[in-house]
Every structure is written in C-alpha cells, then in structure tokens.
Amino acid sequence: MKNKVAITVKGRVIDGKTSNICVPLVAASLQDLLTEAKFVAQLQPDFIEWRVDYFDAVEDISQVLTAYAALQEIIADFPLIVTCRDYTEGGFRPLDTKVRLAILHSLLQTAQPDFIDLEYSIDSKKLQPLKTTAKQYGVRVILSTHNFKMTPPSDVMVTTLTKMQAVGCDLVKMAVMPNSRQDVLNLLAATLRFTEKYAQIPCITMAMSELGAISRIVGFYFGSAITFAAGPKASAPGQLPFSQLKALLQSDVLFPRKT
To answer: Angle CA(23)–CA(137)–CA(33) in degrees, nearest 5?
Structure first.
C-alpha cells in the first residue's frame, strides 16, 4: 500500500480508514441557511459542506461572504468544505464561468474555509491560480469529478484518480452514476485499487442514486475517506439521511469491532 498523507482538521482524521460523514447545507436564503446550519450542527457530523450554488444570492459576492461569516458563528467547530458546483457537474444553477471563478477566488482570499472543492474539468490555466491562492491562504483543495450518466470502466476510474492526484491537490473526489450493480462493484474496486497502489493523498468516491447507496455505507472499507449524508435536504441522488447512515456505520453487525 502507498504511504498516503493523512489529513487532520479540527480533530477529524481523513485517512481512508475512518468513516467520516459530511452533511451539505443547501438552503436558498440566508435565514434558511442559518436555520439549516443550526439543525446540522446538532447532528454532530464529522464535516459540513456549504453548497454555495444553492444560495439565491450566489452572484452577489458581498452577500456570499456575509453568509459565510454568519455560518461560522454557528459551525466554527466543524471542518467546512465550500463548494460552488459547476452546473454541468451537478450544480444547482447555471452560473457564468467568470462569475463562478470570481466567487471561488473571493471565498479563498476572504473566507479561507478549511477546504474548497474544485472541479477537475476547470481549464488548467484557470485552475492553477485557484490552487495557488488556496495554498497561500492555507485552504486544502478537493479536486473532484462527476459523471451523472454512467460509470466508466474500473481501469479508467483508477487512471482518472491518478491523473487528478498528479495535478496537485489535498484530496481527490469521484462521483459516478451506476446503471447496474456491477457498476457499483467497479467503483468500489477502483477505489480499493487506487488506494492500495497509487494513492499518495486521501480519496473520496461514491456511486450515486439509490442503486449506488451501498457505496456510501461501505465506501470507507475500500478506502473512501468521506461519505455524504443528507440533513434536511439531499444535495445529490442517493444520499441517505444522516441518522440512518450513522447508525449503519456504527453497526457491529455490518462492521464488527476488534476486541
């Protein structure tokens, strides 16, 4: 197995051996966002993600930064992932590329979250400045890719994860859409192979939809470092409610504890 770099943030360890749960915030208004944040904080997840693309005022950077500051008053103790997802990769609304990149740069420079999620599909000339700014301000980068149509062959997924890692980031993330149970197995196999043979950093993988829900439960067993669960609302197809997923991950039947 490769010697991966484990990441520890606010007491949470990301190493592909620990089952970490992240809950996304997807409210549209500031008031609803803060209410959602209070609810999620009471759940005590390992990580929280703010999906900025769901925020109605997303194109007003000053309102985004105000919302971030208000969020920090509620969830400061939790490692926070900030995501403004590209519409073509599952974002809530289409945003002009220049506007979206400006939002990301402002969040990096002013908000300085624990993590920022950037798509692997971003043009390299535009991705590099974002990564440089993230490093400057101590923000860890999750480089992600999403396929909402199908699941590539296992070898292709391993190659993609390896290429993403080589670009330079702190974690790699891959989400695919399964069209069969074999697709789910292929995703888990690719995760295991990447983790054992090529990974130098933690990875996050998942098969979406109800068909792929099992990958959100057992993914860490194959090396996926974080799984996503729904709070009041889901941000992607197949997310299980937080309480249900947590109970499953703590089950001695599914995952017997060493004695």
So the answer is: 30
Tokens 């194109």 appear where? 59
Contact 172, 140 (CB under 8 A): no
Residue tagged 């990447």 (tokens): 194
Q: Give percent of the chain above pLDDT 90.
A: 87
- Give mean pLDDT, residues 33-38: 97
Residue 258 domain-assigned (yes or no): no
Residue 20 φ then ψ, to 5°: -100, 140
Which band of pLDDT confidence, cut at 50, 70 and 90, is reported for residue 235? Answer: low
| CATH number of the structural domain spanning residue 91 | 3.20.20.70
Farthest CA pair distance, the chain: 54
Question: Containing domain of residue 44, as a range?
Answer: 7-249
| From 131-140, 154-163, 249-258, the region with the lowest mean pLDDT | 249-258
Tell me: the pLDDT tens digits for 52-84?
999 999 999 999 999 999 999 999 999 999 999
Residue 102 backbone phi and psi in degrees, to 5? -65, -40
**What is the C-alpha separation between 228 and 174, in angstroms, rounded?**
12
**Number of domains forming the structure of the chain:** 1
* Catalytic residue list: 146, 173
Buried b (16+ CB within 10 A) or exposed e, 189-202: bbbbbbbeebbebb
Task: Classify residue 256: in a domain, yes or no.
Answer: no
Separation between Cα atoms, residue 183 and residue 153, nearest integer Å:
8
Q: Has residue 254 been placed in a domain?
A: no
Contacts of 96 (CB under 8 A, 6+ apart): none
Residue of 41, 132, 61, 116 lying closest to 84 (CA atoms): 116
Tell me whether residue 2 is in a domain: no
